[in-house]
Amino acid sequence: MNVEDLEHLAEQYRAEGAAQTREVRVCAATSCRSGGALLVFDALTEVQQASGPAHCKVKEVGCMGLCSAGPLVAVADRDAGLTDVDLYQEVKPEDAADIIASVDGAPVERLRHPTDNPFFARQQLIVREQCGVIDPDSAKGYIAAGGYLAMVKALTEMTPAEVIAEVTTSGLRGRGGGGYPTGLKWSTVAKTPGAQKYVICNADEGDPGAFMDRAIIESDPHRVLEGMAIAAYAVGADKGFIYVRAEYPLAVERLKTAIRKAKRTGFLGHHICETQFSFDVEIRLGAGAFVCGEETALMGSIEGGRGNPMPRPPYPAESGLWGQPTLINNVETFGNIAPIINRGGDWFASIGTERSKGTKVFALAGAISNIGLIEVPMGMSLREIIEEIGGGCPGGKAFKAVQTGGPSGGCIPNDYLDIPVDYDSLKTLGTMMGSGGMIVMDETSDMVDVARFFMEFCMSESCGKCVPCRTGTQQMYALLDRLAKSQAGPADLAMLEELCEVVQATSLCGLGQTAPNPVLSTLRYFRHEYEAKING
Amino acid sequence: MAAIRLARPGANPKGLPMQRPHPELPSSDKRWKIINTTMRRAGYAEHALIEALHGVQDAFGFLDEQAMSFVAESLDLPLSKVYGVATFYHLFQLKPQGRHTCVVCTGTACYIKGAGALVEGIEERYGVQPGGTTDDKALSVMAARCVGVCGLAPAAVVDGTLLGKLTPPKLLERIAQEIAE
């Protein structure tokens, strides 16, 4: 199969559904589901079959982003994108008749959520361009929307070196938080000799408050598989693993369906699209260990053992899974690959800042009006993200800080909100990009308590292998607990700061090295809150 | 403790590896067959360990010594390794769980929106903290790191159903309903 054949196939799939020119899209991702989206879907389907126009189709789609207003339903033309729709919020099964009646007429004003507001208008969609538009369980739907075109192009028209060159040109950096240049990682794996190489997709999204990867998998699983297959072709691997959290049952189901359908249609498995390239993907479930998001721990877990991190080097690119050269990238990183191959590395590199290219998906949560997922170009200021897109703090409360990077990151106070968001600028503020969770806190949040919350997390998630992390987090937690209860003296604060330095400098893996970050950053910007709690 | 085979079967005189004998199923309970199938599909390889333990927990609700010994023998692993893995991961339970479960999300977003009050509410009403089970085995309470529905914070999962935008009375009412049924 070459590019023309696939385009022809996509055309054919589009023609099959051409009679249905209008769509009613129901978000069936986890968040809307727990709000009752499936009942809404059933009600809409029933009304549509009984009395709806024949040219209208009710379908399940993935995440539309605005989780706090769910369950979401969109009425749109068949080929319309995410924002070119009549969007309805907090839809109940009783609303089904009104929505179906509005398919060809005026929108239902009482349910309507505008899509020309900053939440939608200020976003730029690359990874999420098909999220909330296509049916995640349909391989046909993915192909009709231009899916697998990048893979077939890479397999039939490009050498592995050309694929890597394109990714390198794009300037894409790892979206899991580290920000390591993706092209460089790929070329290292490609250059390392090895009889068997592996590609791993890290979907162990452990940071509390981060749900980007879950939404991408639940909304557009084939895109992740396509990215992995292109990567495997580029580095010379024929076996892949997706390591996904057991806490994401729907994402696991969607992935299983996607893998099965991709294999059946010849886009995964032996001799993909009649080329010499074969690639097989297996799912591996996590079992509730945060440290398994660390790449060496993750590989230990895939091998069936405890998720204990190993010292690096050797890096996985040289000696990874079962000692073989292994490429590990995050879900969002793989999600960026197909557009880069389709539209070129130069196009991707034209978006974003000098050193951070493309877009980033963020999960907005906490004390913010619009809770959900957004995708914005790198370099947008935090103020625009929080105040314009996020709609600021609800209830007229004053903004206090935003926490990025989860338990490994830090908080940013109001004074620094105008800084453009990229990998490097966040580091200078004492935090990090992380996987993309942004938790907003308003004036009611107690920062010492927040620091204690994160330390409790790190203490309980420490794998116990190295002493500084195992013991250090315990002691730091004890000190923070005393501080939070106003039982600590000045010496305790000094001890806490010293411990932070020791744990940071001497821990084996990222978990321990970054565990003190929330303390250091709250100390940096909110020291007065600590001091106010010291007696004597 | 169940007997664990210490010596691996050696190669036969022709130098071909002998077929590794697999242990008998612990009982005629059909659930063991499902677990055995999971391991067989992976060729009884070591890397099937976590998947096998997931299988046991899905089938029986927790991992007991008999189950761990069976998995250890099937995969030709020392019991200590199986125990080490089972205790490493938070999701694996080594004790029987209550008839109903409530998992309170204690991720950052839920924490900011009052997950603490949910945990306290449960403790007041049922006298158990996360990780515990009531004496009458009616309810097990757990804390999750983040269930990823921050838009609906604070959230909890009661008997597999995800509930969002909770308050302590709302959650307690739901739990009482589940227990009553």
Describe the structure.
- The complex is a heterodimer of chains A (536) and B (181).
- Chain A is of the alpha/beta class.
- Chain A has 4 domains: 19-121, Glutaredoxin (3-Layer(aba) Sandwich); 147-347, Rossmann fold (3-Layer(aba) Sandwich); 359-442, Ubiquitin-like (UB roll), CATH 3.10.20.600; 447-534, NADH-ubiquinone oxidoreductase 51kDa subunit, iron-sulphur binding domain (de novo design (two linked rop proteins), Up-down Bundle), CATH 1.20.1440.230.
- Chain A has 22 helices and 14 strands.
- In chain A, the strands form 3 sheets. Chain A has a 5-stranded mixed beta sheet with strand order 2-1-3-4-5, covered by helices on one side. In chain A, strands 11-10-14-12-13 form a 5-stranded mixed beta sheet.
- In chain A, strand 3 and strand 4 (86-88) form a beta hairpin.
- In chain A, helix 7 packs across helix 14, helix 10 packs across helix 11 (221-235) and helix 20 (490-506) runs antiparallel to helix 22.
- The longest helix of chain A is centred in the last third of the chain and has 18 residues, at 467-484.
- Chain A is globular and about 75 Å long.
- Chain B is α+β, with helices and mostly antiparallel strands.
- Chain B has 7 helices and 4 strands, in the order H-H-H-H-E-H-H-E-E-E-H.
- Chain B has helices spanning 30-41, 49-60, 65-74, 79-88, 108-112, 115-126, 168-180; strands at residues 100-105, 139-144, 156-158, 161-163.
- Chain B has a 4-stranded mixed beta sheet with strand order 2-1-3-4, with helices on one face.
- In chain B, a hairpin with a 2-residue loop joins strand 3 (156-158) and strand 4 (161-163).
- In chain B, helix 1 packs antiparallel against helix 2 (49-60), helix 3 (65-74) crosses helix 4 and helix 6 crosses helix 7.
- Residues 1-15 of chain B have low confidence and may be disordered.
- The A-B interface holds A 30-31, 33-35, 66-68, 70, 205-211, 214, 246-248, 284-290, 301-307, 363, 365-367, 371-372, 403, 406, 437, 439, 441, 445, 453-454, 457, 461, 463 and B 45-51, 53-54, 81, 84-85, 88-92, 106-109, 111-113, 144-153, 155, 161-164.
